[in-house]
């Protein structure tokens, strides 16, 4: 629904923009005056400091709106509003800026989220209409370094019930000033009025009806991306989306209703990119690194050899095709393994005014086909030369001939899928696609499968891909819960929610708006309906077949916060954990706060500010080089200063951090600095500026002790204090 609605809104906006200029001038001066006064009153605007103002009128498909613009030395302000003064959007760009000092280091988020939310809610009270409220979600900006704003978003509640309308408010963190606002309005979203919030159907009856729309299947899955043992899980079958009409109690197929909108604004275009191949004339003058890179291509077969091997497989149907290009590429090598090399071979054949292509990706050493993609135009008037059953037989024969070692453990994988609207003419197909999934202990394991696409024109293999790993093991199928127990657990992950929904209806009215939509080629549009739907707070992959517990997706278990087992009760614990909340620190589960800080340790810490944490002990050579390159770009040190294992002194740590933060040019000024450290006399003259700034910024207290070895904990504390400035 969201995709269709987005496409619809985009097209509506495009059409609106294309209206003649005369339409924009249809509003009178009197209307502009009235709207402007209404907006100023509603928003309590003081516009005396703006020297320029104008407004324009925009007539859309469902409603019309005024766009108001103020500008001057105070900055600029723009407001979009309906003719009745309902504010749709608000954008304030003050001339003054409230920001942190320029720095090469990111800063912690500024401001108070509770005060910012209070400001957002106060603004919403001014702009929301009667019977409207908003349930705001947690703001964005709390977990983002360098964030200077809080963005609140939420669902607009109508008559006490959630609706498909939404809004957002952006608040400047420094002073809680609202700078952005946007909302959906009924007038520009759906036809008709807002239905009564009174439901005749009960929630329990709706729950029973909605349960009948759900079905599960039992399959093997890998619990997470690092698992090598597959376990059995009850997974949901693809089904239509239903809701229960709150007045009649009847199930309504929302997917079928959405099909009414599918022909409007839909479409796709093929994008075929030709890759150019290149080769070197000679190895003369190659550097050691270049020679090492070339060595990665050892054992790679020539494009002629690969081309010959592909043409030797008649099922690929390459007769009449010419090799247009071949591109070799080297992938990342796993530790101790040879770098993989692939070759993409693109074939083309002229067919009247069209160009047909087939693109193979193959292992450049073995010639094994990894994938095949074909492009050919489809004409709905074309008739298939073979049936689906005949095409399936060809796909099975292809796998049995060339992938016999896996074929015995494959079976045609078909699951109920009512989400696809079938073609009216079953003979008008360009190809048939079949997926053969691995089957173990009588259950499918679709994460490993072969997909074969057969051309309906000539029966050739025009598409192919596979994923198969012999290393995977399979949990025994004994001890699984019943299908009904799994369904009960699955339904427990949902809440049956009463709310307003956007539901397409056929356009039959004679009013001006409906007729305008019909003239645009639309046969249906959205109306608001009251209904019960299945909603859940967190995504659920399925039900573990043995424990009966919901199974989360692997990405749901991932946390941005770094956790350490060795910082509890340490004097730097607070700063270390504060940094870890933003992913700043070290990977590996330990911080080692008392460990002497090496230059490499510091570089890893700085690298995590923008690119994520590394484990200093396990980083690859490439990761080391990338991290040092980032440190050079930040200005923390130069290439000539690189000493991976060198112990960093407290004075060097101060210099590295201040240089990275952009204070270096000031710190190096001579004759202007003083400081009050008890060991001031021992500070070298070329370090005095850095020491003074460190004292002024609160990085170092007590004795400076610049020659002592710094620790990881001290680095975290100094970095934390600097990011607060």
Describe this entry's structure for a reader:
By secondary structure, this protein is α+β, with helices and mostly antiparallel strands. It has 3 domains: 2-188, no CATH class; 196-558, no CATH class; 573-723, no CATH class. The protein contains 19 helices and 25 strands. Strands 1-2-3-4-8-7-6-5 form an 8-stranded antiparallel sheet, with helices on one face. Strands 13-14-15-16-20-19-18-17 form an 8-stranded antiparallel sheet. Strands 9, 10, 21, 24 and 25 form a 5-stranded mixed sheet that branches. Strand 24 (542-544) and strand 25 (550-551) form a beta hairpin. Helix 14 (599-611) crosses helix 15 (621-634). The radius of gyration is 33 Å and the shape is globular. The protein starts with a helix and ends with a helix. Residues 1-27, 98-102, 265-284 and 418-426 have low confidence and may be disordered.
Helix content: 25-40%
State the shape: globular
Which sheet architecture does the biggest sheet show? 8 strands, antiparallel
Broad structural category: alpha+beta
Question: What's the arrangement of strands in the largest beta sheet?
Answer: 1-2-3-4-8-7-6-5
Q: Count structural domains.
A: 3
Enumerate how many helices there are, as a single number: 19
Compute the average pLDDT: 88
Uncertain parts: 1-27, 98-102, 265-284, 418-426
The number of distinct β-strands equals: 25
Q: How far apart, in Å, are the first and last alpha carbons? A: 46 Å
User: What percentage of amino acids are in beta strands?
Assistant: 25-35%
Over the alpha carbons, how many angstroms does the gyration radius reach? 33 Å
